[in-house]
Amino acid sequence: MYPLTRLRRLRQSKELRQLVRETSLSPSDFIAPLFVVHGEGIRQEICSMPGQYRLSVDNLVLECAELARLGVSGVMLFGIPEHKDATGSEAYDDHGGIVQQAIRAIKAALPELIVVADICMCEYTDHGHCGIIHGHEVANDETLEYLSRQAVSFARAGADMVAPSDMMDGRILNMRRALDEAGFSQMPIMSYAAKFASAFYGPFRDAADSAPSFGDRRAYQMDPANGREALREIEADIDEGADIVMVKPALPYLDVIKEASLRYDLPIAAYQVSGEYAMIKAAAANGWIDGDRIILESLLSIKRAGAKIIMTYFAAEAARLLHQG
Ligand code: PBG
Q: Does domain 12-324 sit in CATH 3.20.20.70?
C-alpha cells in the first residue's frame, strides 16, 4: 500500500518501461486482408477504405512481396468474381476462380508467405447472402456442401489455410471431412467462430460488392449482445476440428477475445475489420487523432486481450511503424 507501493517507480524511464512491458507487437502477428479482381494492371482504391485497393493478380503479387519484405506473416484473400449467380459458382471454379488464380501466383512468387483463403458465398452470389437461398432463408445444410467444395478448391490451388466466415452450423466438421477425403488432412482451418452481425463491415461490403440484396445477416451472424453465446460458438468449432478460432470484429469485442483466450488453449485470432480501419483513417485524415499512435495502440490492445494473430488492413503500415521503432 502507498507509500510503500509506488507504481510510478517502474514508469520513470523508457528503459524501465521497456523492461516491464507485458505485451509487444511484431509484424509476424499480422495477416493482411487483400481484395483481388480479374484483369491486369488494376489498382483501384476503395473509397471508404483509403489506402486499400482492389488489385488484379499482377499487382496483388507486388503487394504481397512488399508485405513479405516487411515481415508480415501472411495475407487473407477475398475475391471479386467476374459474374455472380445463385450458387456462387466462381467460388469453387478451380481454373476460372479469381482467388484460385491469385493463390497460384502468390505461392509461385513467394512460397514462404502464408496464404489464407476466406471461405464464404457472399462475394460470389447474386443475392449477396452467405449461402444457398430457399425463399428468404439461407439453407444451412445445403450450404455446407458448397463451402466445403470451395475449401477443397482453394486447397488444390495451394492455399496454406482456409478461413470459413459464413457462420453456418456444422461447417467446420463438414469442411474437415471434405479436406481430409481430398487428401488435405494437413490443411489448417481458421474458423471465424464468433462473427457478429456488425455494422462495422460496411466498407468491406463496398469493397467486395457483397451487401445482401434483401434482408440482413442476423439470422446467421451473431447478436452483438451475446458474449456467452460467442463462447458456445467457439467451443462448437473447436469440437468440430478448428485449429484456430477467430473473433470478429476486434476492438468492440475485446471481452470475447479475452474470455476465449482464458478458456481455450488453441491460438486465438481477431479481425480488425473494415469499419474499424475506416474510422481511424477518417479521424486521422481530419487531424482529429494521431493516426500512427492509434494504429499501434488498437493493435496492441487486441493482442493484450489475448489474440495471437491479427487480421488487419493496417498490416503494412503498422509493420513499417514497428520497424521505425
Ligand atoms: C464474408 C466476410 C465479410 C467480412 C469478412 N468476410 C463480410 C460480411 O460478413 O458481411 C468483413 C470484413 C471486414 O469488414 O473487414 N462473409
A: yes
